[in-house]
TrEMBL record:
<keyword id="KW-0732">Signal</keyword>
<dbReference type="GO" id="GO:0030288">
    <property type="term" value="C:outer membrane-bounded periplasmic space"/>
</dbReference>
<keyword id="KW-1029">Fimbrium biogenesis</keyword>
<dbReference type="Pfam" id="PF00345">
    <property type="entry name" value="PapD_N"/>
</dbReference>
<feature type="domain" description="Pili assembly chaperone C-terminal">
    <location>
        <begin position="165"/>
        <end position="229"/>
    </location>
</feature>
<dbReference type="Pfam" id="PF02753">
    <property type="entry name" value="PapD_C"/>
</dbReference>
<comment type="similarity">
    <text>Belongs to the periplasmic pilus chaperone family.</text>
</comment>
<dbReference type="InterPro" id="IPR016147">
    <property type="entry name" value="Pili_assmbl_chaperone_N"/>
</dbReference>
<dbReference type="InterPro" id="IPR008962">
    <property type="entry name" value="PapD-like_sf"/>
</dbReference>
<feature type="domain" description="Pili assembly chaperone N-terminal">
    <location>
        <begin position="17"/>
        <end position="138"/>
    </location>
</feature>
<dbReference type="InterPro" id="IPR016148">
    <property type="entry name" value="Pili_assmbl_chaperone_C"/>
</dbReference>
<protein>
    <submittedName>
        <fullName>Gram-negative pili assembly chaperone domain protein</fullName>
    </submittedName>
</protein>
<keyword id="KW-0574">Periplasm</keyword>
<dbReference type="InterPro" id="IPR050643">
    <property type="entry name" value="Periplasmic_pilus_chap"/>
</dbReference>
<keyword id="KW-0143">Chaperone</keyword>
<dbReference type="InterPro" id="IPR013783">
    <property type="entry name" value="Ig-like_fold"/>
</dbReference>
<dbReference type="InterPro" id="IPR036316">
    <property type="entry name" value="Pili_assmbl_chap_C_dom_sf"/>
</dbReference>
Length: 235
């Protein structure tokens, strides 16, 4: 049944399932966490949920994680909801930094039995959000983690990049990156930083001659509740 639903992976126009958050945090030692799914559409949906470890194109039955989801497959009527419970089943996970998985929701609309739809393709919609396991040894917060990001300019192939090194044990989903120099604002195309990882981000329309000037870097990161925490550093 799982592989049958997953095989319907092409996307239709709009998702009807709304999740209760933009990310899921699983604190070590907690027996389970829950996610609420609401069907905001006008028709019942068959919904499948699973976790993956980054290989998003694998079928659910080919993925092994130390968690189980219940129910993995359910019907949600229009304007109704369903709570999915995620339980840790045991197994070795990092004790000194977060571990990232992805929570998947695949919704399959009902088959239109009308004569007019005989030649229409039946499609499905998939939503995927971050699922983060957080060891109990981590007692910091997002603001302190953002302060632990070190930035350095790099010039590669005639383009200017900002190298961001994450010295914290947290995953940081960076957003709204910018360099401000002499009244000018240059966009930085930021993305996610893994714990203790380093990424080079392109600085749009930035001249390497400006590197020697004084300015500041502004950036933010998405917190556990889907909001943003902002930070700036001078150089």
């Amino acid at each position: 049944m799982c592989s049958l639903l997953f095989s319907l992976l092409p996307i239709y126009a709009q998702a009807d399932i709304v999740l209760s958050g933009t990310r899921i945090i699983y604190p070590e030692g907690q027996s389970s966490v829950t996610v609420h799914l609401d069907n905001k559409g006008q028709h019942p949906l068959l919904v499948q949920t699973w976790l993956d470890d980054g290989e998003e194109n694998k079928a659910p039955e080919q993925i092994q994680t130390p968690f189980i989801l219940t129910p993995p497959i359910t019907r949600i009527d229009a304007e109704h909801g369903q709570t999915v419970r995620i339980l840790y089943t045991g197994g070795k996970l990092p004790e000194d930094q977060e571990k990232l998985y992805w929570f998947n929701v695949l919704e399959v609309p009902p088959k239109d039995k009308s004569h007019a739809s005989e030649n229409k393709l039946q499609l499905a919609f998939r939503t995927r959000i971050k699922f983060i396991y957080r060891p109990k040894s981590l007692n910091g917060d997002l603001e302190s983690a953002l302060k632990q990001v070190d930035w350095a300019f790099k010039n590669k192939g005639g383009k200017t990049f900002l190298s961001a090194k994450n010295n914290s044990p947290y995953y940081l989903s960076l957003d709204n990156g910018a360099v401000l120099i002499g009244g000018q604002k240059y966009t930085v195309n930021t993305s996610m930083l893994i714990p203790h990882g380093e990424v080079d981000f392109l600085v749009t329309a930035f001249s390497s001659a400006d590197i020697s000037k004084h300015g500041k870097i502004t950036y933010s990161a998405i917190n556990d509740f889907g909001g943003e925490t902002s930070m700036e550093k001078t150089f």
